Predict the 3D structure of the following.
Amino acid sequence: MVPGLTLKNLLNIEITGSGTAFPERGRWVMNNDIHQMIFGDNWAEKMAAKNLRPDYYETELGLKKRYWTHTPGSTISHNELTSADLMIEAADNAIKDSGISKYEIDFVIAVTITSPKYSTSMGPFVAGKLGINAPAIEMKSGCASNIFSITFAAQLLQNGARNVLITCGETTTKILKMNSTMAYAGGDAGSAIVLSRTDANDKGIVAGYLNTNGFYSSYMGVNGLMPPNQIDLDNENYYLSYVEGTEEFLQQAWASTPEILYKASGIKPDEIDCLIPHQVHKKRTMAAAKAACIPIEKTINIIGEIANCGSSTILVALDNARKNNKLTNNQTALLIAGGGGISWGGLIIKT
Amino acid sequence: MVPGLTLKNLLNIEITGSGTAFPERGRWVMNNDIHQMIFGDNWAEKMAAKNLRPDYYETELGLKKRYWTHTPGSTISHNELTSADLMIEAADNAIKDSGISKYEIDFVIAVTITSPKYSTSMGPFVAGKLGINAPAIEMKSGCASNIFSITFAAQLLQNGARNVLITCGETTTKILKMNSTMAYAGGDAGSAIVLSRTDANDKGIVAGYLNTNGFYSSYMGVNGLMPPNQIDLDNENYYLSYVEGTEEFLQQAWASTPEILYKASGIKPDEIDCLIPHQVHKKRTMAAAKAACIPIEKTINIIGEIANCGSSTILVALDNARKNNKLTNNQTALLIAGGGGISWGGLIIKT
């Protein structure tokens, strides 16, 4: 593992609000629905004939339900919800949760790897739709994007911003094909948090760790050339392409992050009240808890409810922790994320 | 004008290197070449018949030459240079100029509104190609993106990074049609800087000002839905669409920025050694100099050499200032940018 960047003591900062957005909330796409879409009405027989276990995704990976804006592999349409729509709704919920006026938000960070637009920065776009008059950017660094965005927000708060909105939206279904395992693994979600300045100097980002390895950048990505062209469209090159070979590196990246954060902060595993990992599959979540020496009861595990919603996932998990009182005031949380990019990292946050 | 975010005293920072990249450096596309592409071999007659002045673009807008990776309106090809190629070459030049080892770069910020990829963050991608093992992101906020990126780099340097590479690449030609004024106005370029920590506390970002207005986000942008789809491709919706109505706002945005920076820093116009504006057309540059109360001799005006290369432009101008000794050590520079997003802002930098 290369060293990466460790940040310390970005304090006097608190999470004042969080929110999520899902297409048709409460109407999940179930594993059996996907079996049916791939294999047809007699999927049970067809899967049996191919020696495929219908329960595999739940039993082995913990995948049960997910929200979709779009049926993977079908033609995308202007009538479907976009990642920007999800960002806007999630941001609206987070701002309401914070009780802060949108006029007091001094910066907006929009995060997505599945933007509905080329060229246009989702920062100003989403801020404009929310009626927020503040400087805004769009940023991304793979699945760990929001570890990065939180450190950027914290630095802006330390340099004069009163409140920073991070809003993230992902529509992974629009880059997934139906004929692959990834159809089961991908979900769509918006998620947002409001970070605010506080007088309390025991609240904030005690330690942050950021890293990427671009050697693996092309192992998981959409290969089609941008702006769009007919040949890549005909060849279905605007779907996510995945090449084996990153798994060992990713396991190491996830496993090495907690120790770096413990060392940088002086905080010990038994001081962590809540582990909030990016959600890939249940094995990764279990491995993260083990590497962090944190019992599974203190670990947020919502992969069964949402699947992997790209960079949006970890803020959905953070919102889940807050709303279910698994992360309350005056506690300590450990966040870990890693995935495509390859980007990875983590945060220790005192609330 | 809404307030925006003002940052002060991001000090102990210096620009240690800068560099650029152009396709086929030295082989410019001239105004007459574009006349010929649009009107054919007998362009002089055809333009006269339409009452069009061939000298208009040079006389009125200051546009003479530009570098193109691509002929606007033609089918894009995997054989052409991409914005990532331009980022990599510019970064390589900036790193050489800085004399800093790539192993001492602790963060990479890639900036583009014309990425060659969907989903994939250009941060890790470009860092990987450069052999830089450091955390990396891609970010954008329209034409002022690099005003934002420099403040982000400065904050990372204040929080432990030793050196931060900002590398930017734009291929505006790939989103421009040939049958419009914009074909004359757009150019392609890569540009990069290395920002480094220094013990000198009189060097750095004395004041920064960042703002966006998303109300105008859709006035200038690529309207086609992402990921790519056949209908938008057939309807040529992956080209830049421009709606009248932003000019007055942009003029105000540019005009109001110097005063905000002077007020925040206590620096007076006669203390500025070099004005580095984003390059749109010569009228905008003249207006910027006037608003900043800076004589035109101290103003970088390279629009005639490169045209508007999107967010890459201002770092090309900064490199030009450094390489031509218009900005040397122990001087003060004012940077101003504004454009699509709408994003705008500026910096006062002590070198």
Residues 247-265 of chain A form the longest helix (19 residues). Chain A has a mean pLDDT of 96.
